[in-house]
Specification:
The complex is a heterodimer of chains A (195) and B (300).
Chain A: E1 4-8, H1 18-27, E2 37-41, E3 49-53, H2 62-66, E4 72-74, E5 80-82, H3 92-96, H4 132-137, H5 150-154, E6 160-164, H6 165-179, H7 188-192
Antiparallel strand pairs in A: 1-6, 2-3, 4-5
Chain B: H1 2-24, H2 38-49, H3 53-89, E1 102-103, H4 107-131, H5 139-167, H6 176-182, H7 202-226, H8 232-263, H9 267-273, E2 275-276, H10 278-284, H11 286-294
Antiparallel strand pairs in B: 1-2
Helix pairs in contact in B: 3-8, 4-5, 5-7, 7-8, 10-11
The chains are: A alpha+beta (195), B mainly alpha (300).
Chain lengths: 195, 300
């Protein structure tokens, strides 16, 4: 069974935020929830790099480990999803996540926050595939259609790769090989002879 | 003159140390035109994702996954069992109902205490419902209890503050409180002995500080978590404090209920009607009893 993974190639990411826009648009994500976001370090300085990060669908997911109501589950293909009917919005998954993936919308009662929302790998949720309820609660289900997640599909430079872990790793390995390493590596020093 | 020279020398030394320290700091290896391995970039990214996961997030994950729930289960089962054992082996203290009853708890104190008691029980039950949420399948009911937990906390917090102000003078620790702990207030034997204790004995003082100050800390950490009022690391620290302090409050609450209802016959009535019988006051709160006698409130 394919093990789904994300991989963002920081050497290619140009911080266009196309992935973030595609995700928000495709799933009608409300304002304030950022399922996917682009983070940049060393902005404007030598060594500026960007990475697109959402839920990493970890193997030993800390969010699943800490949830007090067992609202989070992992599918056979590795995708981690939340059951919004079970979730109580306590926020433990957010405390436990190393990537800040869980997001919480404004709730209805007493100023409390609503239940947790996060990147679904475009695989919907526990509701029936392609049902209205699934679309309303979790967004599109592209994996059930055999399509790649919206973010990776829209990536302008194909920095963001998503899909079968083996295939993603292969693509990345070939890129690293082509880019070379050490003195032959592609980068400023090779282009502009700066050491 | 000598003092000025020493002070100058120390300042020079500290300044020199600071300069050397500053010079040895490297800018991040990623800030260069040269080729840097992608791993170094990922390392820098890790620091920006969400707080210090290695330090606080990982700790919270391990504690919440393996320890918290199990420790709560042990405490919920063991604490009542231990006191059931105490009741069966040693039983309750009985004191004479004769004599002029002594006013002990004011009307305001009693009213606020019982409001605090009811809200505390609601907080305890709703808190435990979240810990054991998966046994109920989560969902709407547990979510409702979570909102209850947050709202009732306001009422409890107010009562805790009022009780603190009302009774703090009676809860100041004294040296003879240590002796109280050495005999556990005489509760470990069936025979009754005169125990030197204030209006609140040492055990009651411990519960006072834990419930009021601990209650305030629970309210503050709870507020931070409910409204996400802090950085991610603050949230992680808050939840760990909240759950661990909750364990202490759970245990001491069970102890308090046992001591207040079962361990001394008539103690529950004291908190309802506000009086204590002279023999009980003389035996279990002797220091306060002697003080009342000296001030003329009791005639023997």
């Amino acid at each position: 069974m394919a093990r789904m993974r994300f991989l963002c190639d920081v050497e290619r990411c140009i911080d266009c935020a196309g992935c973030a826009v595609a995700c928000k648009e495709g799933h009608n994500v409300p304002v304030g929830i950022n399922r996917r976001r682009v983070i940049s370090i060393n902005e404007g300085e030598p060594g500026e790099k960007s990475i697109s990060v959402a839920c990493m669908h970890c193997s030993d997911a800390p969010c699943i480990a800490v949830c007090p109501v067992d609202a989070l589950y992992q599918r056979d293909d590795g995708i981690v999803n939340v059951n919004k009917d079970t979730c109580i919005g306590c926020g433990y998954c957010f405390f436990a996540c190393p990537f800040g993936a869980p997001q919480f919308p404004k709730g209805n009662s007493f100023g409390a926050r609503g239940v947790m929302d996060k990147c679904t790998f475009c695989a919907g949720g526990p509701d029936e595939d392609f049902s209205d309820r699934e679309m309303k609660l979790y967004g599109q289900n592209r994996i059930a259609e055999g399509k790649v997640p919206l973010c990776a599909g829209m990536c302008s430079t194909k920095a963001l790769l998503a899909g079968d872990g083996d295939k993603v790793a292969n693509i990345y390995r070939e890129r690293v090989f082509k880019r070379g390493s050490g003195a032959n590596a592609w980068g400023w020093s090779r282009a502009y002879d700066k050491k | 003159m000598k003092k000025i020279l020493i002070a100058l020398f120390i300042m020079l030394f500290v300044a020199g140390a600071m300069v050397i320290f500053a010079e040895t700091q490297q800018p991040s290896i990623t800030k260069s035109y040269g080729v840097v391995s992608t791993t170094a970039y990922y390392k820098d990214f890790n620091e920006v994702f969400t707080g210090d996961w290695q330090k606080y997030g990982q700790k919270f994950t391990i504690l919440q996954e393996k320890y918290f729930k199990n420790i709560y289960t042990i405490l919920i089962i063991a604490t009542p069992l231990i006191f059931l054992l105490h009741f069966l082996v040693i039983g309750a203290f009985k004191f004479a109902h004769s004599g002029e009853k002594i006013p002990w708890y004011s009307f305001l104190g009693r009213v606020i205490h019982w409001i605090a008691a009811v809200t505390f029980v609601i907080m305890l039950i709703s808190g435990l419902a979240m810990i054991y949420g998966n046994l109920f399948g989560g969902g709407d009911f547990i979510r409702f209890l979570r909102y209850t937990h947050g709202i009732v906390a306001i009422v409890f917090g107010v009562t805790a503050l009022i009780l603190f102000v009302l009774w703090v003078k009676d809860a100041i620790p004294k040296t003879y409180d240590i002796k109280w702990f050495l005999v556990m207030g005489g509760y470990l034997s069936k025979s009754q002995k005169i125990i030197k204790a204030d209006k609140f004995n040492a055990g009651q003082k411990v519960w006072f500080w834990l419930a009021t100050l601990g209650g305030i800390i629970m309210a503050v950490t709870g507020y931070i978590m409910y409204f996400f009022a802090g950085t991610t690391d603050t949230l992680r620290i808050s939840v760990m404090i909240h759950i661990i302090l909750g364990m202490a409050l759970l245990v001491m609450f069970i102890v308090h209920v046992y001591m207040g209802v079962f361990s001394v016959k008539g103690s529950l009535q004291s908190m309802i009607y506000g009086y204590k019988m002279p023999e009980e006051a003389k035996m279990l709160h002797n220091a306060h009893y002697e003080k009342l006698k000296k001030e003329g409130y009791i005639s023997e």
